[in-house]
Specification:
The chain folds into 2 domains: about 140 residues, ATPase, nucleotide binding domain (Nucleotidyltransferase, domain 5), CATH 3.30.420; about 180 residues, Nucleotidyltransferase, domain 5, CATH 3.30.420. It is built from 11 helices and 11 strands. The protein is about 40% helix and about 15% strand. The protein is of the alpha/beta class.
Length: about 350
Amino acid sequence: MIILGIESSCDETSAAVVRNGREVLSNIILSQSETHAKYGGVVPEIASRAHTEAIVPLCEQALEQAGVSISDINIIAATYAPGLIGALLVGLNFAKALAYRLNLPFVPVNHIKGHVAAAYLIQAQSDSRRAGVVTPYIEPAPPFLAFVASGGHTSILEVGASELRDAGDSVPYTQFKILGATRDDAIGEAFDKIARVMGFAYPGGAEIEKQADLGDKYAVKMPFAKVEGSELDFSFSGVKTHVINYINTLTQKNGGLTEQDKRDIAASFTENVVQSAISRIKRALEKTGHKKLVCAGGVLANSHIRADLKNLCDDLSVNLYIPDKKYCGDNAAMIAAQAYHEHQAGNLGALNQNAYAACEL
């Protein structure tokens, strides 16, 4: 089964062709980061216009790179939530129209579920796409625990939970239970805001990681946020505000930040938020007893959190699954991967399917 996936939830336009929810035949991503860098963040109106201009040629490019024609496609899928509403509507409406024109099933996909599905992906060999030759890989079949961390989301999820399976669902890949979530800022959002205050260009996560490699992670004391009564929930607003106030105080006192100041702040902030995540993931693993952990989302491109997650899973004898870095950020291949399982579960979309800035899983 060959799926054309479309993703346009924020500032990347992406189209991908994926076979059987696993084999990536193509995955084209057009980033708008340079366009939005001058504003210090994503401008929704500009993002929507850019998606509109890019979506048709990107789909054509994805089909060409995959070595298939539009007549070979069996399913059309697109992100419907959560995200920037105008941006979502561009990809969603294009996908619905294309599915209607080709008389194909349309599958709407939740963006957060898509991030988890990135762990199922493997690149098909370029010279053997039609034969389905792929690199050997054992995907994380449910049930498992999942941690999603990106610019807009930080969540701990249970996929294919036992009570959901007992309810009679035959496709556990589509059944998600939220165990913990952020009460305010997501990890990626906090990284970007701290980076902007320190004068780094948007998106600032990569520069924070680079500076953190050179700094002292114990140099700046920061509060370790806890959510009373919800041990698996996250809160990063407090530590973000603390760091911004620290930067402002240091700037007023010394006339600016030295290069070493930036390195130490980046290292200390990274350590704080990573350990905040690690502590909650550890507790969730202990409570649920899962021995498989899937971690996905743009923040998982960060080498510090990847290393600490590996150490955690080694200590607990848990199998860790993290997508290749090229599938950590927003991309259409992950949307097509989840669409395969949604289609198996009969979760098809109608022509009146709407987009939503926020929604439940």
